């Protein structure tokens, strides 16, 4: 315990610092999101708690909503941690930590204490959902759900993905339990489940055996082959580099998915709205604006290695070409989804109108390159302002 | 094609600290070693020659090719920095492919294969840069000597983190290629310097006003 508390203090200090930077970096986006959801904050809270309530109802009548809430809660937990992975588990001293003689239990406690704190945002809705009907069974169930979510998160942190199969089996077992057994039997089985989860948590911290390490190393040796004429090496490196920052990419993809889904919902329910094509064009431009942050990131990474890269005959144009190719690819992926749905729902005339917005969104993306790399932190704001110019053009053309 | 590397009246300062003042020198075909105590400005000179850091005044150029900021100059340059840095998730093969692509070098040759073999790099070519040891990263950078038809090779502390076998391989490479290229090395390594027998440029004073 004497190690766990100081470690929690260090980890939280680091987490606070990194999160502060992230909040500062995305301040405009956050402001936008807050303004968007503020008017409906109360109903949003209600919406958040509503599905969780189904987890504690006895007897369970709606198995589908129970299962959906259970899976959704765990998936959200995993996404929540994956987007904060670096700020949580990659402090500058994490390699040094590996050299310390910490027992597996201590390591578990260090990670779990940090996760329990960071997951407060998940625990509160869960507790609010139970507040009106606290019984021993409800408390036990609550502990099981929290423990299962922690297990899913820790298996992500420790890259023990095979553990997810075990979690799935446990979920199925829980579903079977709540629809089959009485309250007392459920309570006993939940206690058993807590012990099983505890054992599985321990498995996540077991070191790989020496033999498996040797096998891994040997298979790596045999897998290597000389190939210094790969196709599009610059593109490959940039893509790999982007995926290395998977948490930021997850945020970006989630945001774009939400925007695309909003556009689709608008197309389903806004049949009579004359401004519908214009609203869709806004969604497409926002998708481009979100992707434009990639320019800044790749450029910053390029600067990081400039002590070597600037000695190479790489032109700024070839760098621009490669980043634009990646960014356009991501934008098209989401915007084409809107086009396909539009084609399915609304027919040719509508698609012809939003195709203009589709191409303008790509042109807009290309124009954000210079602001993003020249103005750095202000780059997003300048691109945001530039977006209104394109909105105006969209308005005129559509 | 034979060419020379010229430094004409180059100066470099960092704030109030004057490191080089109005220096001129001509590097012909062959091997050169820049030696001197820590902090005298060897790396600064190497970085100026590599075009990584710009001189405040004067000119550095390859005759008939261009100055140290031109694409043609960089096309003719192989630079091995003191600290090998590259995108951490790129593999060895990615790195070599990237260099051969930017150098527009499409040929396969025995030279690079012999370097990969000599440096025992083959098992590490699918390893990510961040997972390689410092020595392996350095050897990977040294392998780029074989990629391209450049006239100029600049190396900053090339033997740092190298094992004895790789050291000997490097000595042989420098001896071999210095016959038709300009090789400039900043090094403290007496064994390397004795083996390759370069023209020594000793940097002692500050600011440096001449290279001898």
Query: What would you call the structural class of chain A?
Result: mainly alpha
What's the order of the H and E elements of chain A?
HHHHHHHHHHHHHHHHHHHHH
From the alpha carbons, calculate the radius of gyration of chain B and give it in angstroms.
17 Å
**What oligomeric state do the depicted chains represent?**
heterodimer
| Percent of sequence in beta strands of chain A | under 5%
Query: What is the fold-level CATH name, i.e. the topology of chain B?
Result: Rossmann fold
Strand coverage percent of chain B: 25-35%
CATH architecture of chain B: 3-Layer(aba) Sandwich
Q: What count of structural domains of chain B?
A: 1
Number of domains of chain A: 2
Q: List the secondary-structure elements of chain B in sequence, H or E.
A: EEEHEEHEHHHEHEHE
How many DSSP-defined strands of chain A? 0
End-to-end distance of chain B, in Å?
Answer: 26 Å
State the share of residues found in helices of chain A, binned by percent.
over 70%
Number of helices of chain B: 7
Taking pLDDT < 50 over at least 5 consecutive residues as the criterion, the unreliable ranges of chain B are: none
Could you characterize the architecture of this molecule?
The complex is a heterodimer of chains A (398) and B (212). Helix content of chain A is 81%, strand content 0%. Chain A is mostly helical and 398 residues long. In chain A, α4 (63-82) packs antiparallel against α10, α8 runs antiparallel to α9 and α14 runs parallel beside α18 (316-346). By secondary structure, chain B is of the alpha/beta class. Helix content of chain B is 31%, strand content 26%. The longest helix of chain B has 14 residues, at 164-177. The radius of gyration of chain B is 17 Å and the shape is globular. Chain A binds chain B through residues 220-221, 223-230, 233-234, 236-237, 240-241, 243-244, 301, 304-308, 310-315, and chain B through 47, 50-52, 71-72, 74-75, 77, 79, 81, 83-90, 92-94, 96-103, 106, 108, 112-113, 116, 122-127, 147.
